[in-house]
């Protein structure tokens, strides 16, 4: 007997899955395999919420596979050990998978699988599933390649899968079965491919109408952002699927853009499409730089900045106890839900890097563990940008006060997530330390007791951080490296 193996990684769906489609087309019995590596669980960027979410999405995949005759095997351990076991029993002819863009550990794992296949005369075939191009020599033509990828036809889900006789699906464990602690998230999304498509359609049918004007606020963004990121992180939906369904919506809107039904959609859909392109753009950086969690794109610049770890500042920042109400509300909201909108993600990292001058590697790992939708390529690209260690991006030092007044002018979001300030009036909600002692007692919020004093003077330290950053960027060696970074990673919007 010979079999084809589909190695599922972060492509947990049966539709638009070329690896699965090609395995079925091989006319051999198909074994679907998912492997959870112990080394991944122990990583600094991994949290129990990631594993729990992935396992729940995997359970939905099992149901989908079984509905068309497939079986899903789960293995916790070395992928090479499991492939060797299956090869002894069935004889593996092909291993089909998708090209995963990850950090160095997953890249090394994939190379080991390729080497194992070569040693055992097994064909190893990987398929691109988004606009990220492997072995890209230059960014000059990347946009054209990306556009051709996402414009290509979606792959239909198989109608039937033939599995080896007597093969049974594994029971998909819960994270607790693996002794992995996962915090309980508020309003955690439903897992799986069907849920992903439902969220997409709810966005394109209704929620996305005001996407452009609502996405910047952590309040309106909860409803108006697509909320597809957790599904993209596990591959329950593909970028190509989102792109095609969005184009379909755009085509419909263009037929009568001024109608009541279509009004407001044009600009929002255009903004959404651009962010789908940026999604691939940032992951493309990781494809070329698998060590972005530890080494800056511009190491000369990072060395010049000389950021230092401070336990007190880090604890205040990571727990949402800085004394800056809006910042603390955002961090606490993120920890409670596993999600926050893009602009606030940028602010959280910017404050860590510029205002508090903390090392981006440590703060970046904290945020990685906090995001349910953690996508290494996007996350570490953003950490580098918001920490000013690329040399090709402008200094982005967010003012907490400005963001607070712009995004939460009445302080409703602050009061919800920082209940210590629930009685503080609008006049003081953004800067409660300005209250007199009498006012603090009147509003039941004594600064330094009920709510912390600001960890530092935000305005002063932020300006200091900006000044240091501009000074470092002007160094000759830094500028030289910046030119190289742009050649490799810079955006070519028209090419």
How would you characterize this protein structure?
The chain has 495 residues and is α/β, with parallel strands linked by helices. The protein folds into 3 domains: 3-127, Rossmann fold (3-Layer(aba) Sandwich); 193-288, Alpha Horseshoe (Serine Threonine Protein Phosphatase 5, Tetratricopeptide repeat), CATH 1.25.40; 299-489, DNA Cyclobutane Dipyrimidine Photolyase, subunit A, domain 3 (Orthogonal Bundle). The chain contains 24 helices and 5 strands. The chain has helices spanning 18-25, 38-41, 48-67, 79-90, 104-119, 142-151, 193-205, 211-214, 221-224, 229-234, 239-255, 265-288, 299-305, 311-319, 325-337, 342-355, 360-370, 376-387, 400-407, 412-417, 426-429, 437-442, 458-473, 476-489; strands at 3-8, 30-36, 72-76, 92-98, 123-127. A 5-stranded parallel beta sheet has the order 3-2-1-4-5, sandwiched between helices. α7 packs parallel to α11 (239-255). The model has no long low-confidence stretch (mean pLDDT 96).
User: Do you know the CATH topology of the largest domain?
Assistant: DNA Cyclobutane Dipyrimidine Photolyase, subunit A, domain 3
Structural class: alpha/beta
Name the helix and strand elements from N-terminus to C-terminus, one letter apiece.
EHEHHEHEHEHHHHHHHHHHHHHHHHHHH
Give the number of DSSP strands.
Answer: 5
Query: Architecture of the largest domain, CATH level 2?
Result: Orthogonal Bundle
Distance between the amino and carboxyl termini: 49 Å
Helix residue percentage = 40-55%
Rg estimate, integer Å = 24 Å
């Amino acid at each position: 007997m010979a079999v084809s193996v589909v190695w599922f990684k972060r492509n947990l769906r049966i539709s638009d899955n070329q690896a699965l489609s090609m395995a079925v087309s091989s006319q051999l019995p198909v074994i679907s395999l998912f492997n959870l590596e112990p080394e991944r669980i122990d990583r600094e960027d991994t949290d129990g919420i990631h594993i729990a979410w992935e396992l729940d999405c995997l359970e939905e995949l099992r149901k989908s596979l079984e509905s068309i005759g497939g079986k899903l095997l789960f293995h916790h351990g070395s992928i090479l050990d499991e492939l060797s076991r299956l090869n002894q029993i069935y004889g593996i002819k092909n291993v089909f998978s998708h090209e995963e863009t990850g950090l160095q550990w997953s890249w090394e794992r994939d190379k080991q699988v390729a080497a194992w296949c070569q040693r055992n005369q097994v064909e190893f075939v990987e398929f691109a599933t988004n606009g990220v191009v492997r072995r890209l020599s230059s960014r000059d033509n990347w946009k054209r390649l990306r556009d051709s990828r996402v414009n290509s036809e979606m792959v239909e889900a198989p109608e039937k899968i033939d599995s080896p006789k007597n093969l049974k699906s594994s029971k998909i464990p819960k994270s607790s079965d693996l002794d992995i602690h996962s915090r309980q998230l508020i309003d955690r999304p439903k897992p799986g491919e069907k849920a992903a498509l439902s969220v997409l359609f709810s966005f394109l049918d209704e929620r996305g109408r005001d996407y452009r004007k609502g996405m910047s606020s952590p309040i309106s963004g909860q409803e108006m952002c697509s909320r597809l990121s957790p599904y993209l992180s596990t591959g329950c939906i593909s970028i190509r699927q989102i792109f095609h369904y969005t184009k379909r919506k755009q085509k419909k809107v263009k037929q009568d853009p001024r109608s009541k039904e279509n009004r407001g959609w044009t600009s929002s859909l255009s903004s959404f499409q651009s962010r789908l392109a940026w999604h691939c753009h940032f992951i493309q950086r990781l494809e070329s730089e698998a060590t972005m969690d530890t080494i800056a794109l511009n190491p000369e610049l990072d060395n010049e900045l000389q950021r230092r770890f401070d336990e007190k500042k880090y604890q205040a920042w990571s727990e949402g106890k800085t004394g800056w109400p809006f910042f603390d509300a955002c961090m606490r909201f993120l920890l409670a839900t596993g999600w926050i909108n893009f602009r606030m993600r940028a602010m959280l990292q910017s404050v860590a890097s510029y205002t508090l001058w903390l090392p981006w590697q440590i703060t970046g790992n904290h945020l990685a563990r906090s995001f349910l939708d953690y996508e290494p390529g996007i996350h570490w690209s953003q950490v580098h940008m918001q920490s000013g260690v690329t040399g090709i991006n402008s200094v982005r030092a967010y003012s907490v006060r400005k963001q607070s007044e712009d995004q939460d002018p009445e302080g409703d979001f602050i009061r919800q997530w920082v209940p210590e300030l629930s009685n503080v009036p609008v006049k003081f909600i953004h800067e409660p330390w300005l209250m007199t002692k009498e006012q603090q007692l009147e509003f039941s919020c004594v600064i330094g007791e009920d709510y912390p004093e600001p960890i530092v003077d935000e305005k002063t330290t932020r300006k200091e951080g900006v000044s240091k950053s501009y000074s470092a960027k002007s160094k000759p060696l830094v500028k030289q490296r910046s030119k190289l970074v742009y050649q490799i990673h810079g955006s070519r919007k028209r090419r």
